[in-house]
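Bug #77: duplicate submission created two jobs. Keeping one. Sequence:
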Amino acid sequence: MDRIGVRLRVLALLVVLMFVALTARLWYLQVLATTRFVQQARENSVRFVPTDALRGQILAAGGQVLVGNQESLEIRIVPDELRRSGRAEEVLYRLSELLDVSVRELTRRLEDPRYYPYQPKPVAEFVDPLVYFYIAEHPEQFPGVYGERTSVRSYPEQTLAAHVLGTLNQITAEELEDPRFKGYGTSDLVGRSGLEQVYERWLRGTKGVQKFIVNSDGETIRALAAVPPEPGHDLLLELDLDVQRIVEQELRAGMERARQLTDSSGVPLRATSGVGIVLDPADGGVEAMVSLPSYDPAWFVRGLTRDQQRYVSNDRLAPLLNRATQGVFFPGSTFKAISGLVAVKAGIASLSGTYPCTSTYVHPGDESGAVFTNWEPANTYMSLATALRTSCDTVFYRWGSRFYDLWKQDQLGKGGELMQKLIREWGFGAPTGVDLPAEAGGLVPDAAWAETRPDLFEDGVWLPGGNILTMIGSTYLRATPLQVARAYMAIANRGRLCRPHLVDRIIDADGTVVREVTGRCDRRLPGYTETQLRYVHQALLQVTQSGTAACAFAGFPLTQIPVAGKTGTAESPPRQDTSWFAAIVGPVEKPDHVIVVAVEQGGFGSQTAAPIVRRIVERIYGLEAGPVGCSAERED
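Kept job's structure:
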């Protein structure tokens, strides 16, 4: 009996403990956790659907719209409503007939996992207005189907400045997990290139929210109050619409003219691609930037066709590449204006000295006997100014050779090559900082780089030829056209190294300034006097009057509108030469523009690039077009 009593007491205790535990749990759920469960219940009953904000516009300097927003008539379906109607098959078939889209494709779009069942899913955009209004006027035939007016990007100037403006594309799954894209939804568009990418956070705007009450099955009961979206900010550019149009037209026309000419071997010039840049020396503002071949940004709004996809994916044409900032080239003799000043600063050359210009040059003591030739036979002495005017290579070869000797004497230690250090001060070898994405930095070759290129330098040893050829912008040195333009801008404004910029101001829809982007000329080139910079500027004026660009500017009113410039012919075997011309246009004391044109496989600098610059200047200043053309005989 005692054993039975013990068991009963244990059983009673277990029962009591179970009731105590159950009571405690009920008390916790009904008292302590009440707030949390009430909140969860509310969250389960209320759904938040974001509404897109109107993206900010991109405006030219004069206020003209370069990128705006246009209306797209869309057809959307609420899956829940369509399912509850019991007529899904009938409705989809009727829509298929009206929209000329297969039922299978409509079903695929309707199953898009990026949207909730109670959220309208877009199944067709840019719908014909007649179709759009027919659906809106016959709701009984299309339960769950709605028409909606949405906003998409528009380009009033069509392909103009495409590389500058950029494109949009749908956000990726990886980006949705990136903290930088916090608040983005699965169907949001993101800037992929150009200003659309760099100023994404300013252009995007703030989404609104529409609230819905839904039941436990996720079906919509009714809509609640909505928070309206806030539109994005507008970008007001430095870019001048008229100048941009002129540069694009003249670059295209100049490339066409080049294809009617031949190189020194008699082979027709291919003129495969080109770049045109116009900068304002006062503040580094980009007045025009053109890269050819180009593309139509509107293609990316509607989605690329097969032919368009094939075109933009062509590696040989590379139409999506902005060659002004992402293309790296040998700058050729346009670089001599900079390397000449570098030699002066280093004390290797002077403004008053004269130097031998010979047909060939051999580095003293070079056992290899490598011979460096001038672009034309010569045997005379000349000043730095004359060397720039005639583009004598051997004058600059000697200075490069001297820089090499200084390095070999180890005055600054390994890796401290004086020539390379002074070149980098001009901004070469690093991005300019322009407000465009994926800018290339180019290359200033040195001994450390040679160690990584045993294919070019035996055992990776830096040789005299590296310095010699760098001084004329050939073989190893690589720069973007914008870097060259920036360097010439520094000559024009007497040593102020500006950071080029496209955006002038970020403004609200009502014109209120949100942010200023101007005033990027606070860096000064160290160690150069105004006399030295003015000397080179004056020497470049002689290039268009009696130097290598004289034929391209024959008959041009240079006394009325001074043009200081430098031709460049950059050899890049087996491809044809790249044609360059860099110019400072306007009064010497206060120039108006810096213009750089480069045409790949365009021949000599005087043959293609210089005539293009002349045409650009004539149209900017409203001059009558004069004769343009130089012979195929090389003028560097």
